[in-house]
Amino acid sequence: MSIFRRRASQTSAEPVEPADDAVDDLVDDDVEEETQDAVASRSQGPWDAAEVDGLGDRLDLGAVWLAPVPGAEIRLEIDQSTDTINGLQIVIGESAAQVQAFAAPRSGGVWRDVRREISGAISGAGGTVDEVDGDFARELRVRMPQLAPDGRQVFAPARFIGVDGPRWFLRAVLSGQAAIDDAAAAPLVEALRSLVVVRGAAPMAPREMLPLRLPEQPTPAPAEQQPESFDPFERGPEITEVR
How far is CA 38 from the centre of its chain? Predict the structure, then answer.
């Protein structure tokens, strides 16, 4: 089941038309909520490529530029059927953040709609959902029903974070210890703040995933140009392909 694209099921009861004043209140609430989300979401990042001064020391993963994250392991999730990268994971200790970026309309407001869809899907499947004020905007703290290896139903905690940007939308799912412990989530939240999204100019359908790619490997310098302090056994950044 793809929670991202699944909508909450509709009831069969006849809808009740609200009074005109009630309609105005609902519209005002939506506008106010969207405005608050937009302001809160990106006041300290993540950033659009037009808002930063080049790549710098960030890792170029195509649609996303990732700043160095101390103690983190970076994993790229690869779809075997298409051989395309469909997600980025930042893993720190017993916590992880799955990150995906999508195209969005100029009007924005995608996260407000998506979190309603996620909430409806998880609640409909028997899970629990709490919508709270988060580090960026409103976020979802959920417990999703899953089958344990022994066949029992268990509930896995997760945090769904969304950020609306200029013609893009970023979604992160925090799992592991970060889903239940704010202190464990803090370094992942900071990593999300440092992200840069590269939307590009190509036309894309709303919610179409922005393409990720493997980082380019630097061309080794000729032996005579390598610095004397070069250590071939020094451990550098790691990319793990998850298949």
Answer: 16
